[in-house]
Specification:
Mean pLDDT: 83
Largest sheet: 5 strands, mixed, barrel
Structural class: alpha+beta
Helix content: 40-55%
Number of helices: 4
Order of helices and strands: HHHHEEEEE
Radius of gyration: 29 Å
Strand order of the largest sheet: 1-2-3-5-4
Length: about 170
Amino acid sequence: MGWFLGLGIVGVVLLVLSLVFDGVLERLFDGVGVLDGLFDGLLSLPVIAGFVSMLGFSGAIAMGATGVGAVGATAIGVPAGLVTGWLAYRLSRMLLRDDSGAAPRDEDLIGAPGSVVTAIPADGYGEVLVHLAGQPVKLSAKSPAPVAQGAEVWVEGTLSQTAVSVRPVR
């Protein structure tokens, strides 16, 4: 039973190391031909740690609870380890996929309300504060007519990634 408990503890230590040294094992073999990408999926450190720890702990529980020998404990521990490794793989893929919304584009600014932070001179540049996707965004702004600081404006178009054309709200 001592060997199985040792395997369980080694698996937990590997899991802690995978959290502390995130991606180190995966980067060791980058660009090494056949081994390139080997540790990205099923042989990643969290998957190996899950397999080893579940093999060890379930084997120790099987030996202690039922009195089976090492072969029986291994026969119980290996499937439990495989299931845990597969679950660790699926969970890590789900977390890494990050299907959050797309980043806002320039077109998303058109029609957005804002307020002038720095006065905009006629045919010159000032600054406006626009709320985009719930986040305040400060942009350079240009207007054909002068706009005073604090005035409410609408974004009419984009001039570049950091500049917009605006018109005052009437």
